[in-house]
Amino acid sequence: MAIPDIPPTDIPVLTPSGDLDHATIAPFAEALQTASAHHPVVIVDLSAATFGDSTFLNTLLHCHQLTDLRLAAVPEILLRVMEITGMHEVLRLYPNVEAAQNPQLPASEASAANKGLRRSEPE
After folding, report:
1. pLDDT digit string (tens) for 73-122?
2. Confidence class of residue 10 from pLDDT cuts 50, 70 and 90?
3. What is the number of alpha carbons within 13 Å of residue 7 lying toward its C-beta?
4. Angle between helical axes of 76-85 and 54-66 (0-180°, round to 10)
C-alpha cells in the first residue's frame, strides 16, 4: 500500500479511552467511520484504551478496509489480543502518534524495531 503524501497535521487522530467493547464501541465506531470516509489516512491513538473485545477488533478491520489505518501507542493488553488473533500482522502499529504521522519505515518494520510494542516472552 502506498503511503499518501499528506502533511501530518492533516491526518485525523482519534483517541478513544477506557474499555472498547460491545457496550461502549458506538461513539468510537461512528467517529472512525466518519474519519475513514473523509480521509485517506486515519490514526487511532490507543494510549488511553484499557480493553478491547472482538467488536473493537472488527471495527478496526472494517476501517482498515476503507483507509490507511494507523494504530499508535497500543497498550500491552490490546497488543496481546492482537497477537492472539493475528491482527498485529494485518494492522499497522506504531510506537506513538508522531511515528504514525511520519512513517520512516513500513509499519511492520517500525513495529518490530520498537521495544515498546514487543511483549517480553516468559522464560
Report:
1. 999 999 999 999 999 999 999 999 999 999 875 555 444 444 344 433 33
2. confident
3. 2
4. 80
Which residue bears the cell 506504531? 94
On whether the CB atoms of residues 54 and 24 are closer than 8 A, the answer is no
Closest CA to 74 of 31, 30, 57, 102: 57
First-to-last alpha carbon distance for the chain, in angstroms, is: 37
Residue pair 43/72 in contact (Cβ under 8 Å)? The answer is: yes
Closest CA to 60 of 25, 84, 95, 94: 25
Grid cell listed for 24: 461502549
- Answer whether 95's CB lies under 8 Å from 114's CB: yes
Is the CB of residue 90 less than 8 Å from the CB of residue 81?
Answer: no
